[in-house]
Amino acid sequence: MPNTQSRRIALCGVLAALGVVVLLVGSALGLGTYAAPMLACFLLLPALEEYGPRAALCQYAATAILALLLVPEPELSLFYALALGPYPVLRARLERLRPAALRWAVKFAFFNAAVALVYALLLLVLSPPGLAAEFAAAGVPYLAALAVLMNLAFFLCDRAVAALGRAYRLRRRRKRRPPAP
User: Fold this and answer.
1) What is the pLDDT of residues 5-62, one digit of tens each?
2) Cα gap 112→103, rounded to integer Å
3) CA–CA separation, 160 vs 50, rounded Å?
4) How many degrees, rounded to 5, is the angle at CA 19 between CA 66 and CA 44?
5) What is the 3-state secondary structure (H, E, C) of the chain?
6) Does pTM top 0.70 for this prediction?
7) So what's the pLDDT on residue 181?
8) Which residues contact residue 56 at a Cβ distance below 8 angstroms, ignoring those fewer than 6 apart?
9) Which of 11, 38, 10 has the alpha carbon at shortest distance from 23?
């Protein structure tokens, strides 16, 4: 079946809608502040592998805009929009960097800068009730432990994106291979 423009739009549209649903469910459960954006970023992989970074970025933009408008938890939607949403496309570009230590340093710098931007926007612009007091009461050791755990979660997300991308490419290659006579 040929990859037409309408197939690309349909796939990206359905995956964007599914991404918003994942973010809404994560918001409703209250446990998905970090897990739901990770799951939603995995939904960019089919568009990225099938149609390239441009289609994946369009899907990301649609999901991010709808999430910012529809998801009631601003932390979750900002975390997707600024930190994890664009990551699969960025990761594909960063894989070209050598040596590996530089690549990982850039990945963690991007993630930590995005998380800092998310919380700066939350505290300075949106200021949800209780967030500043929660951070003040937590103390430096708690916030440092939270930063370490978030970086560990980002590392696991990176490994999951890599594994899912490889699995998707292998499945697609097997599907296109002609049957043995």
Assistant:
1) 889 999 999 999 999 999 999 988 876 778 899 899 999 999 998 899 999 999 999 9
2) 14
3) 18
4) 110
5) CCCCHHHHHHHHHHHHHHHHHHHHHHHHHCCCCCHHHHHHHHCCHHHHHHHCHHHHHHHHHHHHHHHHHHCCCHHHHHHHHHHHCCHHHHHHHHCCCCCHHHHHHHHHHHHHHHHHHHHHHHHHHHCCCCHHHHHHHHCHHHHHHHHHHHHHHHHHHHHHHHHHHHHHHHHHHHHHCCCCC
6) yes
7) 60
8) 12, 44, 47, 48, 88, 89
9) 38
Question: How far is Cα 124 from Cα 118, in angstroms, rounded to an integer?
Answer: 10
State the Cα–Cα distance between residues 43 and 56, nearest whole angstrom: 9
Tell me how far apart the alpha carbons of residues 59 and 85 are, in angstroms, rounded to a whole number. 10
| Cβ atoms of 97 and 106 closer than 8 Å | yes
